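User: Batch of two.

Assistant: Item 1 of 2:
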Amino acid sequence: MGIVVGYLATPEGRAALGAAIEEARQRDTRVVVVVSTRPDAPEEQRGALESDLEQVRADLASAGVDHEVRLLSGGDVADDLILTAEEVGAQLVVLGLRRRSPVGKLILGANAQRVLFDAPCPVLTVKPGPA
C-alpha cells in the first residue's frame, strides 16, 4: 500500500509532491515517487534531475515519510504511473496539473486523462499555488 506521485521538477510536480506528503502523513503510509524520463535525454538533464531528486529524497525524509523514488526510463508516463500503482497496491495516485485557459480546461492532458481513467485507485489532482 502507499501513495504514488508523478513527479517532474516543475511547480506542478512540487505541488503534487507536497500533496502526496500530506496524504501520506494522514494515512500513515509510504510515498512512491515516479519520475519518467526519455531514454534519449541529454546527460546534462540527467545530472540536473539526479540533483533535484536528492532534494526530493531530503524533503521526504525531513517530513518523516517512508518513501521510494523510482526513476523510469523509456516508458510512457501514464503507463509508468498506472503500473506502479498496480504493483504497490496504491491507495491513491497524485498528479500535478498545469493551469489552463478556459478553452484549455475543456481538454485535459492525454497522460493525466489516461491516469484518471485507468488508475486502479482514486486519483488526486493538484495545481500549484499562485506564482
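Item 2 of 2:
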Amino acid sequence: MTAPVFVVEEVPAGPEFVLEGPEGRHAVSVKRLAPGEDVVLTDGRGRWAEGVVKAAEGKDRLVVTDLREIREEPEPAVRITVVQALPKGDRGEVAVETMTETGVDAIVPWQASRCITQWRGERGAKSLAKWRATARESGKQSRRVRFPEVGEALSTKQVAALLATADLAMVLHEDREAASEPLATAALPESGSVVLVVGPEGGVSPEELAVFAEAGARPYRLGRSVLRTSTAGTAATAVLLARTGRWG
C-alpha cells in the first residue's frame, strides 16, 4: 500500500512539520494515522516529500518528522486535456473523479449547445468549485502529486481557440461514418499537447463539429458501443495514456 497523500500550500523542507486544518483533521480523525506510518506531503503541482508520522495531537494536528528531500515530478511529455461537455446532475463530478484517477492532466468544462445543464451566475461558480474540489480529492485518493487543472467553463468559440493551439486536436464521435479513424490507432505526437473534446449526451452538433474542424480538430471513435458523456472521457484518456507510455 502506498503512503497516503496530503496537500500543503508549500512542501516543507523539514526536518519536522505539523499538518493542521482540514488536512490534519482528515489524517488524525478519519485516516487515524499512527506513529511510524509513512505519509506524502504535496502541493498538488508536482512537488512532494515523504515523511513519517511522529505523533497525532488532538483531532486535527499531525506531527510529521524525518522529512526527506523535496522531489518534483516532471511535466508529462504529452499533456492530455479533456474538454468535457456539462453532464446532468452529479455526473460531472463522476467524470472529473474518474478522469483524475486515470491520469488526465487538465479538464475544461464546455457549455455545448445540446447540454441540458447550464452554468450561469452563482450556480456556475458553485459547480466549478465542486469540480475543482473533486479533482483535488481524487488526486489525493489516487496518490497523485500533480493534480489536473480544472479550467473555467468555455463556450464553443473558446474551445475552438484552445483546439487551434494543440499539437493534436480530437473530437470523440459515435458515428462510424463521420469518425472513421479509431482513437486507438491515431497518430500521436511524441511531445506537446493533446486536446480531446467529449460531447454531451445529445452529441456534438454539426455546427460545433464544423467550428472545431476549422480549428484543426478531427473526429475519432472509441469503439462499437456508445458511452455516456461522463465515462467517455475516462475511457479515452486511458487509451491515450496507454499509447503514450504513461500506462504500462
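The first strand starts at residue 5 and ends at 7.
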